[in-house]
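Data availability (excerpt). The following record was deposited with the supplementary files.
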Amino acid sequence: MKRILLALALLLPGMAIAQSKPNIIFILSDDHAYQAISAYGNRLVQTPNIDRIAHGGALLTNNLVANSICGPSRATLLTGKYSHKNGYTLNEKTFDVHQETFPVLLQQNGYQTAWIGKLHLGSLPIGFNYFNILPSQGHYYNPDFINNNNDTIRYKGYVTNLISDFFFNWLQGRDTSKPFFAVIGEKATHREWLPDIQDLGAYDGINFPLPSTFFDTYDTREAAKDQDMTIDKTMRLAEDLKVHQPFGLQNYEQDKPRLQQWLQKNYPGRTFSEKELKEFYARQGEYRRLDEAQQQAFNNYYGNKITKDFDEKKLSGKELVKWKFQRYLKDYYATAKSLDRNIGKILDYLDSTGLSKNTIVIYASDQGFYLGEHGWFDKRFIYNESLKTAFAIRYPGVIKPGTKLDALVSNTDWAPTILDIAGVKAPAEIQGRSFLPLLKREPVKDWRKAAYYHYYEYPEPHHVSPHFGLRTKDYMLARFYKGVNSWELFDLKKDPNQLKNVYNNPSYAAIKQQLLQQLKALILEYDDQEALEIYNHSL
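Predicted structure:
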């Protein structure tokens, strides 16, 4: 018997190596703020299953993104490069899938790979044995998915549950002789924050406290004043907060003539049956997709309760803004509830099958998000709430449970870290760096002291001026350009909420020069030519 086993080991060395490698699951949510997670200190809302990952491994307290919007963050995950190098600086563009991405390298080294859920890169992915992805942002209810055959199929149900189901189906049908890597790309908690029916009203009993910066006047911060992302003016009562929002086919008859005119213009000579008209109508927009049972549940909650409450209160001014804030957080957290519940299902499955012993589980969000800080929702700015994102990782036998990592980590580091875990050498063009040694508490003398950032999207959808800058442990420096042209500097020890721009304060002159030199060094290191040209021209 020993001779037979020895012969098999000699004949199949690749399989022996592959089987010894860990499986890796990367759960990537959308716009899930770190301050919304109980492992990060939220005491009003619990996220027990994300916490399981953090408590069983490590929680990163300074995980920073390179460009705080959805698609570019995913492009950085795939490439380990900043937006100006991977070519995906803005949402709703087409990502170049033919550049080197780390899943391809994992495939070449014996891994089975999958991406399920939101990708949002305008192209079908390469480097995955299996994918079933949402078109663009996707929908919460009865969503469409695009599979490996480029077939778009609509599925009945709630998106977070469906994503988990697809993952389990793929996992059960995989080749068990090989390790696997899978991205579970969640839609939650993206705007317009539609909870699962069972979670409607889950947090109606909580009166969420206003952030201390909620009524920020943006003094000394021109770009912050110039944005269009406030709960007060930008957040919509109907589309975002579901006040007087029609659901399902409620408005079909009154919208039918306009729909027919549009179809006649775009499909001349074609006749549509009543069934086809309704099917086409139901595919347009988030709320029309609801079936009769879903529509009834939404009408009962948002129509009979929330809209009625709104109408009765007849609010205006600051009281209206406060009401909108409460509704925003209640829907946001209710949407996140299903996200955490499904993460629990995944963790339970790994435990029940024994896979948890050799499976790394990572939870992260694509970027941070504002939950009323500065009066905002959304992200984009280099300020803390949108710059910093959640990241927890569980690696049995390697990362000590309860580890907290305070070092400055960039999402450009995610790809090389995964490659390092898999025993695959990172390509030279990757701009990030593996932080696995930090997770293992190994000494790393030359780890970064400053993280680089560059945001581009302007003027739509939120009129945030493009900017680049850096963040150190104690300071943040940024250069805004296009819409607003200005420099900002914040002392994070004295001003953690980033309210007072001290760039022109004489007492910070020496620190400012030091940070300016650091910023230029990072621009040169990462070869950001657009930023360099702007940097070299004084205001």
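Summary of structural features: The chain has 17 helices and 16 strands.
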